[in-house]
Amino acid sequence: MEIIQAFSQVINPSTLLFIFIGVVIGELVGVLPGISSPAAIALLLPTTFTLAPGDGLAMLAGIWYGSSYGGIITSILLNIPGEGDSVISTLDGYAMAKQGQGALALGVSAFGGFFAGTIALILLQFVGPDIAALAMRFGPQEFFALMFLGLALVSWLSGESIIKGMISCGLGLLVGTVGGDIVSGESRLTFGFTVLQDGIGFVPAVVGLFGLGEILHTVGNKLDINHQMKISIRGLFPHGSQWAPTVWSTLRGTVVGFVAGVIPGVGPTNATFVAYAVEKGISRTPEQFGQGAIEGVAGPGAASHSGTIAGMVPLLALGIPASGTAAVFMGGFIIHGLFPGPLLYLQHSDIVWGLIAALYVGNIMLLLMNTLMIPVMVWVVSAIRPYLAPIIGVLTLIGAYSLSNNPFDIWLAVGFGILGYFFRIGGFPLAPMVIAMVLGRKAETALRQSLQISNGDFSVFMHRPLAASLIVVAFLVLLSPWLLALWRRYRIARSVT
Amino acid sequence: MISRVYRQALLSVDGLSGLFLTILGLFCSYEMRFVQQLVVWDESGPGPAWLPLVMSLILTVLGLKLAMSALLVRDNPSYSFSRPTLKYTILIMSLASLFPVIGGLSSLTLFVAMELWWVEQERMRFSIMVSLIVAFVVWFVFIRLLGVAFPLSPWGF
Q1: What domain range includes position A367?
Q2: Single pTM value for the model
Q3: What ipTM is given for this predicted complex?
């Protein structure tokens, strides 16, 4: 019932315009290598401050999932993945394009993506309120345990090394503690700077880390794009025997993507790799994979889109962002004084349902764009690409400055930009840091509330079964590299004796 | 010979990151405990210094672990800046310094022109033309439509 009301709110010229702007920017971000969706969301966060919360969030959401559509276009046509979740599409998508089946690969990913996105939205619509209702029964112990597990999973799964993931998470938590203490108000880690009393601004930090850090990493890389390609509408559809494998791969990819997208740290990028492995594993002709197998495009394409939408489930229902992009998107709520979580469903249900309705509308817009405007998108990539570095610089600076009109925030963004650059070349994942910055204060509040209840006794977490199990799992995750090393040593020692 | 090998390892990506994190962790712990002298723990549980102190100590340990593992690995890649990255960093820092001094719009225009000419090696006339177009778009979207209050230049714009 709420969703029907939400559609009546969303279908008005101004909201439709903002959704359209969001999906167009998302699509452009997806096709442009060198700028990721969290960077684009971060850069455009401050512009939504003056909009109505529903319009602003609809635009940011459009960027988020629009980028996952756009990234596939350049993967298939140019062998250049615009986003992490479109890397796998280069294998069979580009092979299909070289065989003159580029239009079919694009069509399969566009229609499959639309289907997967719609199914994921239906699941979000029905599962989200139940999870939020369950979370209403949580005490501070459960919330702390949930956030602790989320941070542990993100540290574990975001990068190649868990040590680097933990360092990134630890830095995020440390940055989150800068400013006045939540209980006593005493200054922490301000080093005598009064401007830090209110803490480090989330927007300057994320525009620096994602926008500036990324451009510092890619500036000077010239991209030679050949956009002389012909795409016909008829060529977008499979024919004859291609239908069955396409449909089944899309269904499997949708399920894999949704499950992976809900788990913090796994996200759509990993989902695409899992979906590809599943398709290759069950195929009767695995040798065709990498040579232009249609299942190698359909499965990962569907997983990417359903995984992106699935990331909204823990964000909206629990207030826990499952990825770096979700953490930056959460900033869109925060600057409007809204906090995702179970209470959002109760206090601002219009915002939640409006966002879901906007996602449905955006999904339709993206299907039209991805079937009718592909040549335009490819032309735009080649036209904008040379000016990307100065444009990002300008947007970073304006983004950092415009929320509080404070020139100090510009220096913060520059500092975080340089840190983001070092993170990239050092192989440190950014997602744990941003998620820790968002969750740090909430986790600290929940921890201190829990310990105040028990006069500082940590066993308070063990008295609640859900909190206890979540904390045990989190510790197992964090200690997994050492436990696995011990296990390997034990097995070697046993085999020797 | 041995000291050169160790020096190279410590100057690698992991070595330098590890050393930086160790120093950062120790510095933050010192700041919390001895400069600001905040309460770590009292009868009701953790005090304001508890989480920052724990995080600083964890970062110190992880930083040391990273630096130590860098010593054990041969051929660890080292940090290297490309010329465009270095130029861009200089430009963005100059922009941050000039922003409140010569005004928001003037500094942004100058940044775009310099970036295109110096970093992207475009022609001077072309760079100036693009920077003026960007300045107009910034003025229209951010100042006119969104009402962002940029600092003004001494010349009043």
Answers
A1: 2-139+200-414
A2: 0.82
A3: 0.91
